[in-house]
What does this fold into?
Amino acid sequence: MEKTIISEGKTTNEAIENGLKKLNVSKNCVDIKVLENEDKRSFFSILTPRVVKVEMTLKEEKVGHNKPKREIELSQVEQEKAKENLEKFLKKFVLKLPEGTTYKIESTENYIKVNIMNENLGYLIGYRGETLYALQNILSAIASKKIENRVRVILDIEGYKAKREKTLEDLAEKVAKTVIRTRKPIKLEPMQAYERKIIHSKLQQNAKVETISVGEEPYRRIIVSLKNNK
It folds into this structure.
């Protein structure tokens, strides 16, 4: 799939709809330029089929160029309160988990890190980490009780995130090689923002390919393609 395509139709709307179907994205994910308008028809063209052409370009997800969002800094008092909130919840929570489950809470000025350990917690991770991220959001809400700032909690379960990061980095390299060999772009399956960032970062320094994200959450995905100058 290309980042820029020319789409045709009997009307402008039809040309746009055809293009959106081809790109498999919604209208707000593309920039649209009408190349030939259905109103601009000469006397000699009335017997020919009406064709409207539009140029559609996928909007890029900028990576590494925007200023990073300023992270909330937690005071020492807020860190202790957040840890206390989490401790109270996790102490009861692990009793419902397989025997031998343990947890560790660490705090920094910007976030609280929670690690839950037990090799039998696959169901708490879920498909591609969906359950883990849902639980992470819950823990953030719990940690933020009676604290003015929302506390960011980073949850990991039995080292899942480190393993997933390695898997995604390997995938990025494999896809890049395929794109370079076939000279055709590859669209990856939908990923969470955290996972897309790993792919973008891994290929950012690659001189031959580039990455963009298209679509809307939770179906936003990455396209890896050859750079224009290659």
Q: What stands out?
A: The longest strand covers residues 30-36. The domain at 162-226 is CATH 3.30.1370.50 (Ribosomal Protein S8; Chain: A, domain 1). The chain has a mean pLDDT of 83. The longest helix spans residues 160-182.
